[in-house]
Amino acid sequence: MSTESTDPVEPPAVVTPAEPEAEHDESPKNSWLKFVIVGVLAVVLIGAGVWGVTSLNTTGVGDCVSASPKDVDKPDGDWNISSEGCDSTSATHRVAAVLANAEDPCPAEGIYEPVKSGSEMMCLMPNLAEGNCYTSGDDGAFKKEACTTESPVKIVKKVDGLPEEGTVCPEGSSELRFSEPASVYCMGVHEGS
User: Fold this and answer.
1) Which candidate, 81, 80, 64, places its Cα nearest to that of 127?
2) Pairing relation of β-strands 142-145 and 64-69?
3) What is the pLDDT of residues 73-125, one digit of tens each?
4) Structure letter (DSSP) for residue 156
5) CB 121 within 8 A of CB 98
6) Neighbours of 59 (CB within 10 A)
7) Please, what's the b/e burial string for 123-143 (b: 16 or more CB within 10 A of its CB; e: otherwise)?
């Protein structure tokens, strides 16, 4: 009689040793480097945000603004300037030119107000529109008002460009000419009710 078994014999299991966990090198050099990278990224992001906000708030030629001197006794000092929609009643002026420095003159022909707002120097012109009525305030700025029989000034016509004087405005109106942007406003008296 034989003692051999016919059952298959499984080979012994091979045990592989577990790999040791990778050690994280938290040396002071690596911690300092991470701090510097995070700091530089923060400065770049903050700088980009500040640049974006300030560049969006700049005033350009043709923009309408509400403008008044910060100190009414010093109209040649710094002014409060805020962007407005051109149809807004608070939009007293339009930017005619942005000057490179304070010594640069405003355009030659027209009623321009040279103003300083922060670091910007600009020439403002009245924000006038055809069909609107205006009064002149104590500060000399035209203020839009409802047209009535008492309205002192109505813009009866606006012409782009600078045609020859006396050729574009209806009889009984006077010309207000601007060389930049080239335009003529015909001022008359409101005759409606």
Assistant:
1) 64
2) unpaired
3) 776 778 889 999 988 888 889 999 999 888 899 998 888 989 888 888 999 99
4) E
5) yes
6) 18
7) bbbbbbeeebbbeeeeeebbe
Q: For residue 47, report the phi and psi dihedrals to the nearest 5 degrees.
A: -60, -45
pLDDT of residue 49 exceeding 70: no
Pairing outcome for strands 142-145 and 133-136: antiparallel
Structure tokens at 111: 């009623």
User: Is residue 175 classed as helix, strand or coil in its secondary structure?
Assistant: strand
* pLDDT per residue as tens digits for the range 7-28: 666 666 666 656 655 555 555 5
Answer whether 187's CB lies under 8 Å from 173's CB.
Answer: yes
- CA neighbor of 67 nearest in space, from 111, 107, 109, 127: 127
> For residue 102, what are its two tokens?
């304070």
3-state secondary structure 44-57: HHHHHHHHHHHHHC
> Does the pLDDT of residue 40 top 60, yes or no?
no
The answer to pTM > 0.85 is no
69 contact partners, CB below 8 Å, separation of at least 6:
75, 77, 78, 79, 80, 115, 139
